[in-house]
């Protein structure tokens, strides 16, 4: 396309994506402080926690308490992740959780088996039941995610045809259920994307589902997150998941040790947008402050760049 969007929307995932992978359990008060700091930045959506097994993910065992502790700001949506009906029911029972319908499918069968203990085909079949459950509870479908849409550490290259097949499935199942599909988000779950593939796959989604908004969930696993972000901007993409200070990472992405870089860094991408004349609604200086708070809480240097160098505002 070549036309940059006028406005970009960021969904902040640091509080969930970041702390979920940490081996050390961080105090509830610190995590609530970070959410509250992010609430002051102008970001419209913050993913606070996961309602998952406390045995498998002990860092998320107190999700209900965390939602009770944060200071909600009007205009901010506080969201959560769940993987099964038990998690969904916990989220439903927790005051202050913004609930909406979301479908999740995988382009990689092996990654799906490791992450969800089922095949990619079984995961697709489950989406119909989820759609009907969302309807039962009066929840509007907001998005559909295609995970491992660029590559997989277990299966290698993911062909464009497999992504296209996933898009067709999502469109067809929504049509058969009489539902509108507002957005499809391509997830570079383990960091295989490059700028040209970003353009190709965004273009393919647009051809197959021209009425659907395209979003991206990018990781900076191999250092090309910012380049992939810019390529997406050139394709007119205006919806991104990101993490303050670059928090997080997928445990299945690490090769040499048990850590891999997290999502694209919120404040760094906001900086890029502002330098390009793109509106975000986010106060960059407040986001930098939130990133520094995240680094203080985590207790080690985090990968964000602007949080260490500062923005250009002091030079202008």
Tags for this model:
316 residues, 10 strands, two-stranded antiparallel sheet, 12 helices, alpha/beta, eight-stranded parallel beta sheet
Tell me what you see in this structure:
41% of the residues lie in helices and 15% in strands. It is built from 12 helices and 10 strands. The strands form 2 sheets. Strands 3-2-1-10-9-8-5-4 form an 8-stranded parallel sheet. Strands 6-7 form a two-stranded antiparallel sheet. Helix 2 crosses helix 3 (63-69) and helix 8 runs parallel beside helix 9. The longest helix is centred in the middle third of the chain and has 17 residues, at 120-136. The chain is globular, with a radius of gyration of 18 Å. The two termini are 32 Å apart.
Please state roughly what percent of the residues sit in beta strands, choosing from under 5%, 5-15%, 15-25%, 25-35%, 35-45% or over 45%: 15-25%
Counting DSSP E segments of at least 2 residues, the number of strands comes to 10
Structural classification: alpha/beta
What characteristic shape results from the CA principal axes? Answer: globular
Element string (H = helix, E = strand):
EHHEHEHEHHEEEHEHEHEHHH
- Catalogue the unreliable spans: none
């Amino acid at each position: 396309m070549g036309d940059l969007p006028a406005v970009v929307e960021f969904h902040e995932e640091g509080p969930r994506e970041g702390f979920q992978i940490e081996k050390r359990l961080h105090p509830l008060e610190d995590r609530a402080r970070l959410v509250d700091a992010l609430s002051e930045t102008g970001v419209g959506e913050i993913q606070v926690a996961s309602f998952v097994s406390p045995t498998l993910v002990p860092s998320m065992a107190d999700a209900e308490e965390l939602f009770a502790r944060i200071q909600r700001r009007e205009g901010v949506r506080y969201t959560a992740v769940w993987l099964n009906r038990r998690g969904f029911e916990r989220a439903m029972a927790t005051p202050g959780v913004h609930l909406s319908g979301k479908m999740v499918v995988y382009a990689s069968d092996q990654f799906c088996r490791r992450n969800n203990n089922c095949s990619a085909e079984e995961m697709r079949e489950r989406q119909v039941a989820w759609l009907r459950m969302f309807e039962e509870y009066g929840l509007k479908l907001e998005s559909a995610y295609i995970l491992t849409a660029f590559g997989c550490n277990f299966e290698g290259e993911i062909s464009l045809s497999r992504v296209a097949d996933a898009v067709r499935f999502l469109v067809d199942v929504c049509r058969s259920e009489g539902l509108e599909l507002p957005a499809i988000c391509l997830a570079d779950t383990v960091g295989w994307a490059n700028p040209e593939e970003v353009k190709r796959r965004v273009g393919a989604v647009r051809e197959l589902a021209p009425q659907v908004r395209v979003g991206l969930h990018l990781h900076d696993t191999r250092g090309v997150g910012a380049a992939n972000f810019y390529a997406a901007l050139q394709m007119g993409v205006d919806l991104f998941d990101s993490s303050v200070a670059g928090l997080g990472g997928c445990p299945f992405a690490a090769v040499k040790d048990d850590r891999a870089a997290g999502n694209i860094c919120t404040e760094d991408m906001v900086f890029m947008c502002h330098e390009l004349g793109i509106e975000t609604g986010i106060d960059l200086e407040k986001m930098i402050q939130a990133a520094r708070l995240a680094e203080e809480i985590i207790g080690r240097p985090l990968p964000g760049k602007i949080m260490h160098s500062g923005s250009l505002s002091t030079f202008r």
